[in-house]
Amino acid sequence: MKGVTSASSILLVLGRSQEQPASASLPTVFLQYKFFEDRLNITCSANARPAPVISWKVSGSGIENSTEVLFHPNGTTSVTSVLQVKDPKRQVGKEVVCQVLHLGNVTSVTQTVDKGFWFSVPLLLSIVSLVILLVLISILLYWKRRRNQDRGYLYSKQPWKRDDVCLQSKGQACLLPRKKIRFFKFGVPVL
Question: Is the pTM here over 0.70, yes or no?
Answer without folding.
Answer: no
